[in-house]
Amino acid sequence: MSIVHPPISYESCRDTLKSLAADCPQARLRSLGCTPFRRQVLALSMGFGERSVLFSAAHHANEWITALVLLEFARDCARALKENDTLLGVSARALAEVCTIHLVPLVNPDGVDLVTGAVAPDSPQYALGEKIAAHYPEIPFPEGWKANLLGTDLNLNYPAGWRQARKNKALLGVTAPAPRDYVGSSPLNQSETRALAAFTREVQPEVVVALHSQGQEIYWQYGGLEIPGARELGEALAQVSGYALADTPYLSAFAGYKDWFIKTFRRPGYTVEVGLGENPLPLAQFPEIYRSCLPLLLTAALGKIPVDKWGEGM
Questions:
Q1: Residue 219 has pLDDT above 70, yes or no
Q2: What pLDDT does residue 5 have?
Q3: Is residue 268 reached through a cis peptide bond, with omega within 30 degrees of 0 on the bond before it?
Q4: Residues 219-247, buried b or exposed e (16+ Cβ, 10 A)?
Q5: CA–CA dist 114, 143 (Å, integer)
Q6: Whole-angstrom Cα distance, residue 291 to residue 304?
Q7: What confidence score (pLDDT) does residue 252 get?
């Protein structure tokens, strides 16, 4: 298995997606909009099937390893389509006929570039991050940075219990731009979250999966809503990945992307916490993370475990 351009940067992600789109006729690349620092939030769509699904990664800057998962998944799908091959026994062409898979690997390109070193230490962008981080000396800089470069935690910026999230984070002392946990001045006031929300409304996915790190857990609920089929699909995702289907911790249970999706669309949405350890996770974990995520993503795409033998464990 090859890892695409580790660790990750906006440019390496963009170049990988452009190459995949150029080489695979069933892949389409588009920009969803620009960040405040003129990096694009990019989406790659593959297949033409009626069932639409949307997978996102790297809402949080120091969780950039999740972007590599979606880039590797896109690379594997493109290769299998080109070679008329299978993915874990699933025909890529049959998958493309049934599903349209939308991938947004880098929701937070500005923050990821800060954490991974693509933002030069002598640049104004780095200085902005340093200025914000100076108020939070307990958070290592830049490796502890989760927010975008304006200091907003993007996965706390969606209109689903946003006011409760603001209260929860205020109790932790975060009421202004910060390396993590600042919810923004209002829901969807960040260009990145507006772009992803608008794209989600456009493609109307049957299910969304948002990749985060870490914990090897799958969160599937929001606000006590009973979403038909959500638990069953969540159990299938847990079965094929080896991750645990879990309740979201209260302090993290509001204003996230999957929360907004569940509230708005009344369809299954999942936050998947990949890997174990302290963020950013080491690249040494990537092969095991991808082995867990590949069957999970295929199962989410099809809405069921697609191959009977998967029930025996991957």
A1: yes
A2: 56
A3: no
A4: bbbbeeeebeebeebbebbbbbbebebbe
A5: 9
A6: 18
A7: 76
What does DSSP say about strands 269-274 and 99-104: parallel, antiparallel, or unpaired?
A: unpaired
In whole angstroms, give the CA distance from residue 295 to residue 313.
10
The gap from C-alpha 127 to its chain's centroid, in whole angstroms, comes to 27
How many beta carbons lie within 10 A of that of residue 210, not counting itself?
26
In whole angstroms, how far apart are CA 301 and each of 102, 135, 139, 191, 313? Answer: 10, 42, 37, 27, 19
Catalytic residue among 63, 83, 273, 278: 273
CB 115 within 8 A of CB 200: no
Question: For the chain, how many helices (H) and strands (E)?
Answer: 10, 10
Q: Among this protein's residues, is 143 annotated catalytic?
A: no
Amino acid at 157: N
Q: How far apart (Å, rounded) are the C-alpha atoms in residues 6 and 29?
A: 21
Element (H, E) at 232: helix 230-241
Q: Which residues contact 228 (CB under 8 A, 6 or more apart)?
A: none
How would you classify residue 196: left for phi > 0, otherwise alpha for psi between -120 and 50, otherwise beta? alpha
Residue pLDDT, tens place only, 45-73 = 999 999 999 999 999 999 999 999 999 99
Q: Give the mean pLDDT of 235-262.
A: 93
pLDDT at 3: 52
The answer to whether 248 touches 271, Cβ cutoff 8 Å, is yes
What amino acid occupies position 191? S
Residue 265: CA count within 13 A, CB half-sphere? 22
